[in-house]
Amino acid sequence: MLGSFRSNVTVGIAVLVGIAGLSYVLAASAAPPGGTTAAVEFTPDGKMKRPEGYREWIESVTSSPRLSPTGRILALFDGLIDATAADGFRGCPFLMALAEYPDPRSAAHASAHEVKAWVRDKLRELVAQLPGHSKATARVLGDQLVLVVEGLYASIAALGSEGPARQARTLAAMLLQPAR
Fold it and tell me: In whole angstroms, what is the distance from residue 180 CA to residue 12 CA?
């Protein structure tokens, strides 16, 4: 699972490379779930044609029918913690793209924003599967979980993978506890 995530994170980093004019980037760090190296294709304006790698990884760790709705959410945090523990992991490539390309009209910014919005929607969808949550509370709790994901990624660059990022799952579990 870790290897496939690293490969999928390469998709995010590839946004920046795509802007430089390369049309294909091989995700050489590890093979994706299918066991082959994936190519990421870009349009002439630098937008990814296939940004699904990261999404596919999230879907794979959050879709096990053997897990409860809470378990599927926590599986995401387990996967993120495992994947970001590698030496040299510098943080979220999508956050980096947003910082490097602040103009919302740029292709890199738009691609990174699209992925971040998808993750937000996915967490809201997962929370909506929890018993006792209305659509409104699912939106709020989903957004709170997004902040935990973003905090995990952001803290790694400054404090390392053994710092506060290791607490992401625990914090997510606390948020998922039913109100008393």
Answer: 40
Q: What are phi and psi of 136, to 5 degrees?
A: -65, -45
Q: What share of the chain is helix, strand, coil (3-state, %, to 5)?
A: 65, 5, 35
The single-letter DSSP state of residue 45 is T
Average pLDDT for the chain: 77
Closest to 96 in 3D by CA, of 111, 86, 85, 79 = 111
**Pairing label, strands 24-26, 39-41:** antiparallel
Q: Does domain 51-176 have CATH number 1.10.357.10?
A: yes
pLDDT tens-digit series, residues 101-117: 999 999 999 999 999 99
Q: Residue 157 and residue 127: Cα distance in Å, rounded?
A: 28
Tokens of 113: 């924003």
Tokens read off for 164: 């506060």
